[in-house]
Write a structure and sequence with these properties.
The protein has 18 helices and 33 strands. By secondary structure, it is α+β, with helices and mostly antiparallel strands. Helix 3 packs parallel to helix 4, helix 15 crosses helix 16 and helix 16 crosses helix 17. The chain is elongated, with a radius of gyration of 36 Å. This is Selenocysteine-specific elongation factor.
Amino acid sequence: MIVGTAGHIDHGKTALLQALTGQAGDRRREERERGMTIDLGYLYAALEPDAPLTGFIDVPGHERFTHNMLAGAQGIDLVLLVVAADDGVMPQTLEHLAIVELLGIPRALVAISKCDRVEPSRVLAVREQISALLAPGPYAGAPLIALSSVTGEGVDTLRQALLAAQSEVQQRSLDGGFRLWVDRAFSVAGAGIVVTGTALSGQVAVGDTLLLGPSGKAVRVRGLHAQNQAADTAMAGQRVALNLSADRLALEQIHRGQWLAVEWLYAPTQRLDIDLKLLASESRAFEHFQPVHVHVGTQDVTGRVALLEGASLAPGERMFAQLLLNTPVQVVKGDPLILRDQSAQRTLGGGRVLDPFAPTRHRRSPERLAQLHALNSMLQLEAMLPALLAHSETGLDPQRLERQFNLPRAHWQLPDDMRLIETRKGPVLFNTERWQALQAELLQHLARFHEQEPDQMGPDRDRLRRFAGTALDRATFISLIDELLADAAVLASGPWLHLPAHQVRLSETEEALWQQLQPQFEAAGFDPPWVRDLGHDEALVRALLRKMARLGLLHQVVRDLFYTDAVIRRLAAMLLQLAHDNPVIQVAAFRDALGVGRKRSIQILEYFDRLGLTRRMGDRRQIRTDNALARRTD
């Protein structure tokens, strides 16, 4: 269990931990001289002889060091709120309580300290004051223990309450990838660089490789301590010290606010959607695009808040919002964060991360807000997927979901009505019904194209995508077409796509004109005539030959120069023979075999480059054996 203190300055947090553990806090010379905690302090102690070690994080109470308090409050299991009996509730008591409530720390104990300095009636009054303060929030009914760190009165009672709470702490899930926010970095003689932090998820072992954010530098775990004891592995919920090594790794490169994560989870982001709550104690509404300090993990970054459901947020209210940060962070769904004002003097509110990969467009659309409502539920990933997919036209990226939820795909249990579509860029998750609807819509668009362009065989893939006006990215759209082609619902004639029933035929006039032109093409062999030399109206001839090219009967090598399909295949066979004799095809060798000029030879070779039969390398070519024409030239 990890216990963190909270409370106003000089209310005895450090002294209480010393009475509990027998270990001195405030080990820094400046802290001893000033008599106050400035930075985080760390203690480990067994609350009774056979109990496991409990980690204690002592935080500063002065308002100038609230940023340090925020760094220490992340990831703790229980907050020990300390209120001095002589002072009672003070400003930092209120701010620290608001922070730990916003962070969602599950348990709280309240220590009424310095009871040896006041009368019992004062202790009773402070007890009533604290109970009234806690009543509206999540810590209503939390144990209140009166004690004195000087006399020891009540300290054992607090110890027993901590032991009882320790038995109730639930083991955090180990299914996710390991991640840790760095709160200290130092060098140990003979060992090298050591970083410490609270393990937020997963497990880590000696020999593992992690990425250090935000630089992404790969580091190796040479050794580790878990709960202040040497170990081979550490897991979520433990205080961890990692001895790191890497090429050219220097202590100056590591500081509080950085993070360590396994490679598959590593995904820095600067735009995230959150569920934002403004503290009821605020005197004015929160405005759209207001600048803030954002505290997440041990990191303090600046940015702005875009409100997604209105122009302002009233005190005590909640709203979906998007954070636009000036520095990358590493977060997953559910991570808590705190917002403070631009001058970092006042806590404004906080919330939880819903989507660390927030969209740049349509962020206020009804579909996006519906997704955020689903993400804001306490459901597991599989239970959220139907709602997320129902409001997504383009499917969901499973790798993004893995990182968003910190849950590897191997642990997913997809419902039967969902499927992963394989694309050239990786899989995309779709609702099966939605995928089938997209296929039906595409067939309708293709039928509409045939109605508008009856003389064309059909569009190519990119033209059909533009014609359909789909939001799908190109890779997913190609997979949609490939499935239709595999099912013979769509046919391909060369690059042209068409419905099985669609055929392009020459009109009687066009057929008659081709009968007059065909002998000239057959007689010309490798040197067919240009459009202007065929003896008919150029516009009519050009339109006919282009139509025949779309039918696959002719090939347009350059503008107004067409070859029959049979001749193109003979030319391809010649290239293959030249490549058989010498894999490197020279222009001169092809020109000599063809018996035409160099310029025409280059035009034909460039056409084969475009077809993908050849690959140009300077003034030479090689055959691309993966091309269908290379395997079928008869």
